[in-house]
Q: What sequence folds into this?
């Protein structure tokens, strides 16, 4: 067994590899960029070596520095994780040439599966089904029409030199083919100066099914069953599960056997994934599942396979790289229960999933409910240089319905602050009726994006809870507000609140309901985390003020001023944008009027309740 290991990666996957290596008694070496000097993976390893500036191209993608770090620290082997250099055949060969052990497939296997056309040719020779299509030298309209007719409609005509959706046409019937071909070629000629096209079967209800395979140096290859990764946004996987919903045993056997043939065709060693595209319009059927590509590395979603098989895939990687045979035969592997993984990102679904960059002040997820794979902790920085994934949340339950419920509970009870995350989006996606029924395809998210990405308002219960914790603050008592005060009856008061997004709310409390005052109250529901504060009537958060005073709802920096003194504005018009708690807050006009007394410029640092401007009512 390998005794010392350098992990050529960062964040969550580096921590994941370190965890297994430590259990096996293997000394670990981390590498880090300037941005990651204080990262969790650096402190988790036995030793850590700096390898360059923050940009990945100057650090994590510089193979020579990584190999030098391994040699300098006496590491025997290099584990590439996923991403970065994990599927770089030249780097794998350089590791071997340096006398080190490469924890991955042979460079020749990486190359064989990295060239897509050559890979498809290999798959056809190995008896692995590939998506029906035509890419031939005969480009006559007659030949193309005949090929499309033979494939069966609908088909997709694609310009060979196409991109950005140009030179692409869907054709639903043979009678429409000639006109669509001519149109496609005209567009291709204008855009790319090239008229050659290819034809592919158009998949009406595409599902992304992948099979985990594993090979060793002794000629053994097994599969560890399938995963369904159909829930995607812009080709990025969002939620993965194993096994695939609706997969019967006959289809499973056919697809997994094809995956093993694919791995054998390239003499594969180590962990790999064969990705298939399936036409799910009539359910999963063996004759409607086709090879797409192979990932010659460990996948991000590997924990769901580990959960249903009871196998530590990183341990298998290390054992195979050490020359050992696979720990189990195919007949010793089986599916147990159902597993799901959600990728928790620092991103704002309401703003096109833009990354939410900044410091993680609070990070709490219930480890008793789920496996939490992360490279982040409270105090960590989400950097603009790398993928903004915070954690992978993995649940394993006896049934699919229980797995969905367990993952939703995990999202509901967890907190990441103050950054905006996609937790609420994930919670709503898991509760979507089609997903709960197992009716999934790669377009489900895009079809429902408006609803899934919308940020809900806190419920009445959440507002009341926050108000009870805040209502004693700033002298806000029943006697100062006198709202609802009657003799011989409980006094009531209206409490005005604002959240971290600048939205205002009202709730009513009876006397005696308030807890000791807090400056801010965090409440979580539906995967969303709201930070609520008292909104002063005179210049509260969001600029909704009875006297027109626009005050800062919290300390921050003015990043935009959209109006000038003397300018007429209308109710709800954006006046300024404040960056606070690593988020942007728009301050708006409380009514129609004229801007007067603008006191700040873009770039100004302001304190809570600072007067920023005033709007004089018409």
A:
């Amino acid at each position: 067994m390998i005794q010392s290991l350098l992990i050529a990666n960062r964040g969550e996957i580096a921590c994941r590899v370190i965890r297994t290596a430590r259990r096996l008694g293997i000394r670990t070496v981390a590498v880090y960029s300037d941005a990651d000097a204080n990262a969790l993976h650096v402190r988790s390893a036995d030793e850590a070596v700096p390898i360059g500036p923050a940009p990945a191209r100057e650090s994590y993608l510089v193979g020579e520095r990584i190999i030098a770090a391994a040699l300098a620290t006496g590491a025997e082997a290099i584990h590439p994780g996923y991403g970065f250099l994990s599927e770089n055949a030249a780097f794998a060969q350089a590791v071997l040439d340096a006398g080190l052990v490469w924890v991955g497939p042979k460079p020749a296997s990486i190359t064989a599966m990295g060239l897509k056309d050559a890979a498809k040719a290999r798959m056809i020779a190995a008896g692995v089904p590939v998506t029906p299509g035509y890419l031939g030298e005969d480009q006559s309209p007659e030949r193309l029409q005949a090929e499309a007719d033979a494939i069966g409609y609908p088909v997709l005509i694609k310009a060979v030199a196409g991109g950005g959706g140009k030179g692409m046409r869907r054709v639903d019937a043979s009678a429409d083919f000639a006109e669509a071909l001519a149109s496609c070629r005209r567009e291709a000629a204008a855009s790319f100066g090239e008229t050659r096209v290819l034809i592919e079967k158009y998949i009406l209800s595409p599902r992304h099914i992948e099979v985990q395979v594993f090979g060793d140096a002794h000629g053994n290859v097994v599969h560890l069953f399938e995963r369904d990764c159909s829930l995607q946004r812009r080709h990025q996987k969002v939620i993965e599960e194993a096994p695939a919903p609706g997969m019967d045993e006959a289809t499973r056997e056919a697809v997994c056997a094809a995956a093993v043939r694919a791995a054998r065709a390239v003499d594969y060693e180590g962990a790999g994934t064969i990705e298939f595209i399936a036409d799910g319009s009539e359910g999963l059927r063996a004759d409607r599942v086709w090879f797409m590509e192979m990932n010659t590395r460990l996948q991000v979603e590997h924990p769901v396979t580990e959960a249903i098989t009871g196998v530590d895939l990183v341990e298998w990687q290390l054992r195979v790289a050490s020359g050992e045979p696979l720990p189990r035969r195919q007949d010793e592997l089986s599916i147990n229960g159902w597993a799901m993984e959600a990728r928790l990102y620092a991103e704002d679904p309401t703003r096109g999933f833009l990354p939410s960059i900044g410091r993680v002040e609070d990070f709490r997820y219930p480890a008793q409910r789920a496996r939490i794979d992360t490279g982040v902790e409270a105090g960590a920085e989400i950097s603009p240089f790398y993928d903004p994934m915070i954690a992978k949340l993995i649940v394993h339950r006896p049934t699919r319905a229980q797995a969905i419920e367990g993952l939703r509970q995990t999202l509901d009870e967890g907190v990441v602050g103050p950054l905006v995350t996609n937790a609420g989006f994930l919670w709503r996606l898991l509760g979507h009726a089609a997903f709960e029924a197992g009716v999934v395809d790669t377009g489900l998210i895009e079809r429902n994006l408006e609803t899934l990405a919308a940020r809900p308002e806190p419920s009445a219960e959440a507002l009341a809870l926050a108000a009870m914790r805040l209502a004693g603050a700033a002298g806000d008592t029943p006697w100062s507000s006198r709202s609802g005060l009657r003799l011989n009856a409980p006094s009531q008061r209206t409490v005005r609140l604002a959240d971290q997004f600048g939205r205002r709310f009202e709730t009513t409390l009876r006397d005696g309901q308030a807890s000791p005052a807090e400056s801010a109250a965090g409440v979580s529901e539906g995967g969303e985390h709201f930070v609520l504060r008292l909104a002063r009537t005179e210049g509260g958060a969001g600029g909704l003020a009875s006297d027109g005073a626009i005050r800062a709802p919290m300390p921050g920096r003015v990043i935009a001023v959209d109006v000038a003194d003397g300018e007429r504005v209308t109710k709800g018009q954006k006046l300024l944008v404040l960056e606070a708690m690593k988020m942007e807050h728009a301050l708006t006009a409380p009514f129609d009027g004229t801007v007067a007394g603008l006191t700040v410029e873009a770039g100004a640092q302001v304190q809570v309740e600072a007067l920023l401007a005033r709007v004089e009512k018409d």
User: Anything to note?
Assistant: The CA atoms of residues 59 and 132 lie 42 Å apart. Confidence is low (pLDDT under 50) at residues 473-489, 537-545. The chain has six domains: 4-103, 124-131+205-336, 133-201, 337-455, 456-533, 536-618. Residues 456-533 form one domain.
